[in-house]
């Protein structure tokens, strides 16, 4: 790494963190205004879930496209696209009063958020090549960190001072302006893949089954956006999953002759992201009768996540990424089940703390695992992982909304325990596989 890059990498890292703060503040904002758009503007929880969907599948689309073209258009271009989408999205959200405007606002915000991840994940991995998992955890401190800030602001401004949600939304322009200023006229390096001389074709090959994975996620986006009518509870879903598995095996093993480690991690990302983000986005509706303000619970959950991620280095070093993921799945399973049976403020808060510890390391450790063990997949590998997590969340949100309307909050939480239960089994298998690979 040259001297100039070493000197400005702290500024680039801070700018990246502020961009992620804007992303996370939009998550906190949605967790608060889902109630407003239901009570004041007459939307059902399923409609709110669908209107929020673009924030996730738009995120996915931006990450995938960004991961594919970032080395062609340069990282700086993707960053400024993120800035523009954030600006347009926030203005549209302030003007929103119905389903259509809320939907459009989340399209722009989702594209902005996804572009931040598409650009900043490989940027952090590039400027800290010997500390990838540690610094990606440090970077992703500001996802829960921003939600803490947003949750506290929502509680103070809306719950205590009775100010409008539009004022709360307007505060997001502050970190937006700051990250724009810090990135302005800065030299931003090529991605690690380009700097290490790995070709574009080799990057695609190291994804193992890039075309099948991308086609699958695009199909999920179309379903999440409502452009394809697909019953996720039908037998057709199982048939589709079987076909996808076969195609991944054919493309990855028979054609590219590569390990299926990255496709396996993509599938796990579907479940880890849905467990974390699906629950957090519906926190108001899920815990409104808990005896404690749901936004306070959200602040506690995300605050613990921020602290945990900041001090993730020693834990990752001691347990390695696979051990961290397995432990996270076990604890998040216990936390979700405890939330589903909790009664009263004390028990609910205790259960929420367990859940927070469980989901704390999911997102950054999944990215760190791919950056460390499949490094030649480059920015595309990281983009696929982040995009997969977001599109899965966009599918689970309306399902959770319908379940809350029909089965109630506690049963919905009980249903969600299925996801970390599956992850426990998958991560035990991954732990065995990685130990055998290391021994070989």
Automatic annotation (TrEMBL):
Residues 12-438 form the Major facilitator superfamily (MFS) profile domain. The keyword Acetylation does not apply. Pfam families: MFS_1. Its main location: membrane. It is found in: Endomembrane system. GO terms for molecular function: transmembrane transporter activity. InterPro entries: MFS (IPR011701), MFS_dom (IPR020846), MFS_trans_sf (IPR036259), MFS_Transporter (IPR051788). GO terms for cellular component: endomembrane system; membrane. It comes from the Bacteria. Keywords: Membrane, Transmembrane, Transmembrane helix, Transport. The chain crosses the membrane at residues 12-31, 51-70, 77-96, 102-127, 139-157, 163-184, 204-228, 234-250, 262-283, 295-312, 319-339, 345-367, 379-401, 413-434. It is a multi-pass membrane protein. The keyword Transport applies. Belongs to the major facilitator superfamily. PANTHER family: BYPASS OF STOP CODON PROTEIN 6. This is MFS transporter. It comes from Fulvivirga sedimenti.
């Amino acid at each position: 790494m040259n001297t100039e890059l070493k000197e400005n990498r702290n500024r680039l890292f801070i700018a990246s963190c502020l961009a992620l703060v804007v992303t996370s503040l939009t998550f906190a904002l949605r967790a608060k205004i889902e109630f407003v758009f239901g009570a004041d503007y007459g939307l059902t929880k399923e409609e709110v879930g669908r209107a929020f969907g673009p924030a996730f599948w738009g995120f996915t689309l931006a990450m995938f496209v960004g991961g594919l073209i970032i080395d062609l258009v340069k990282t700086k271009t993707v960053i400024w696209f993120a800035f523009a989408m954030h600006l347009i999205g926030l203005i549209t959200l302030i003007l929103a009063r119905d389903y259509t405007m809320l939907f459009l606002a989340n399209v722009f915000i989702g594209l902005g958020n996804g572009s931040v991840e598409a650009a900043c994940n490989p940027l952090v991995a590039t400027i800290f090549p010997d500390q990838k998992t540690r610094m990606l955890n440090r970077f992703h401190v500001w996802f829960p960190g921003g939600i803490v800030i947003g949750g506290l602001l929502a509680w103070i401004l809306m719950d205590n001072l009775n100010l409008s949600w539009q004022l709360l939304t307007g505060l997001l322009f502050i970190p937006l302006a700051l990250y724009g200023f810090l990135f302005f006229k800065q030299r931003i390096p090529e991605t690690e893949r380009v700097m290490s001389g790995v070709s574009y074709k080799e990057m695609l090959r190291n994804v193992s089954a890039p075309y099948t994975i991308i086609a699958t996620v695009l199909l999920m986006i179309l379903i999440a956006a409502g452009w394809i009518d697909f019953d996720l509870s039908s037998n057709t879903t199982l048939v589709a999953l079987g076909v996808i598995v076969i195609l991944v095996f054919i493309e990855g093993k028979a054609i590219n002759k590569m390990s299926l480690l990255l496709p396996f991690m993509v599938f796990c990302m579907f479940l880890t992201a849905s467990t974390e983000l699906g629950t957090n986005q519906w926190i108001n509706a899920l815990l409104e009768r808990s005896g404690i303000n749901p936004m306070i619970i959200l602040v506690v959950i995300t605050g613990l996540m921020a602290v945990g991620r900041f001090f993730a280095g020693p834990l990752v070093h001691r347990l390695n990424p696979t051990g961290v993921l397995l432990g996270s799945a076990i604890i998040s399973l216990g936390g979700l089940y405890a939330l589903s049976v909790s009664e009263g403020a004390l028990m609910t808060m205790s259960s929420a703390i367990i859940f927070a510890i469980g989901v704390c390391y999911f997102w950054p450790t999944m990215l760190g695992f791919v950056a460390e063990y499949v490094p030649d997949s480059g920015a595309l590998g990281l983009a696929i992982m982040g995009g997969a997590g977001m599109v899965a969340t966009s599918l689970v949100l309306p399902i959770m909304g319908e379940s809350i309307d029909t089965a109630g909050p506690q049963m919905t939480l009980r249903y969600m325990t299925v996801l970390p239960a599956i992850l426990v089994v998958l991560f035990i298998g991954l732990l065995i596989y990685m130990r055998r690979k290391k021994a070989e």
